[in-house]
Amino acid sequence: MMKKWMQLLVLITSITSAGTLLASGGFGEGGESHGSQMPVVNNAKWKSECSSCHMLYHPALLPERSWNKVMAGLDQHFGENASLDTAAHDEIAKFLAENSADKQANRRSNRINQSIPAAATLIRISETPYFVAKHDEVSANTFKRKSIGSPSNCIACHKGAEKGDFSESQVKIPR
Fold first, then answer.
1. Phi, psi (deg, nearest 5) at residue 27
2. Are 125 and 57 in contact (CB under 8 A)?
3. pLDDT value at 166 more than 60
């Protein structure tokens, strides 16, 4: 009787573990779990140059082709001249390309990348179909709140946004 009880316990534990693994996004290449969170990335030039004007957008939020377009248009970067010297430009462009959504094995980056039609090169994260679908319950008036400002201010609601943490459990929409 005890042996069957132990077998049932092992079976339940295995099913629960498999369910948790599947819910987290499964295993990536090399057996390492990548789940839904984006990897922690770091580049001092990217941090200093990009965050001097706006929040630091994680490179895994757009595919490489989008980052290439962003970097090619820095002289007219969303209405501002954000031109960089050649060395800084090249270092940041390489970093963004290497860590872009199409180079990541995590679930969220894959979904962002897959949501964008292959022929499209979107440069606004807030215009990606993935972003639009994930925020469809947030009203336009909510985004206009002084405490938020716009859909591009990810860090207003996602405190871990700059580190690639967009967990729904961590979302706090400010009043």
1. -95, 140
2. yes
3. yes
**pTM as predicted:** 0.78
Q: Which residue has the tokens 């316990």?
A: 9
Q: Which residue has the tokens 């209405």?
A: 79
Q: Report, as an integer, the average pLDDT of 147-170.
A: 94
Task: Report pLDDT digits (tens) over 142-157.
Answer: 999 999 999 999 999 9
Contact 92, 71 (CB under 8 A): yes
Q: Which residue has the higher pLDDT, 23 or 61?
A: 61
**β-pair partners for 171:** 158
Distance CA 34, CA 134 (A): 20
Q: How far is CA 87 from CA 45, 70, 149, in A?
A: 10, 16, 33
Secondary structure of 3-65 as H, E, C letters: HHHHHHHHHHHHHHHHHHHHHHCCECHHHCECCCCCCCCCCHHHHHHHCCCCCCCCHHHCCHH
Q: Running DSSP on this structure, what letter comes out for residue 171?
A: B
